[in-house]
Amino acid sequence: MIKKVMQKLMLGKITTKRNKDNNMKLVDLIPLKEMYNPAEAFNKKVSRMTDNNEHTAATIELAIYMDDRDALTKLNQIKKRQDIKGSIASNKDANERNSIFNKLLRRAKKELSNKDYDLINSSF
After folding, report:
1. Residues 40-78 pLDDT 10s
2. Per residue in 73-115, pLDDT tens?
3. Within 13 Å, how many C-alpha atoms sit on residue 3's CB side?
4. Cα 7 to Cα 15: distance, rounded to the nearest angstrom
5. Are 38 and 29 in contact (CB under 8 A)?
6. What is the pTM of this model?
7. How many Cα atoms sit within 13 Å of 83 on the Cβ side?
8. How far is residue 89's CA from residue 69's CA, in Å, rounded to a whole number?
9. Residues 71 and 103 sit within 8 Å (Cβ to Cβ)
10. Torsion angle, CA of 39/44/46/51, rounded to 10 degrees?
């Protein structure tokens, strides 16, 4: 019995939940993979960033989410110049950031499910 419970726990088929007495209890209802949605977490994080006018940092998060290392390198360079100056360093940097952003969003539309793409896109 314990071996089966451990196997299910390791496979993510069992989750834990705290009851009203704050004790842990095993719940065999929702797989862990379904409980955590990376697109929802991204949406919450990036929405806060864009609300605070951190558009370059938000675009960096999109490059990380899409696993685009070339875009990430370029965006980090833009971010360094922006941090030194206190705002986007030049029109050239702003245009490059926007170009990278648009390419990443087009790629996300092709590669992600409609639900995840809508969450990502609505973050901005």
Report:
1. 889 999 999 999 999 999 999 999 999 999 999 999 999
2. 999 999 999 998 888 878 899 999 999 999 999 999 999 999 9
3. 0
4. 12
5. no
6. 0.69
7. 7
8. 22
9. yes
10. 150
Q: Greatest CA span in the chain, whole angstroms? A: 65
User: Which residues are paired to 17 by β-bridges?
Assistant: 25
**How does strand 15-18 pair with strand 24-27?**
antiparallel
Amino acid at 81: R
Phi-psi region of 53 (alpha: psi -120 to 50; beta: other; left: phi over 0): left
* Three state DSSP letters for the chain: CHHHHHHHHHCCCCEEEECCCCCEEEECCCCHHHHCCHHHHHHHHHHHHHHCCCHHHHHHHHHHHCCCHHHHHHHHHHHHHHHHHCCCCCHHHHHHHHHHHHHHHHHHHHHCCHHHHHHHHHCC
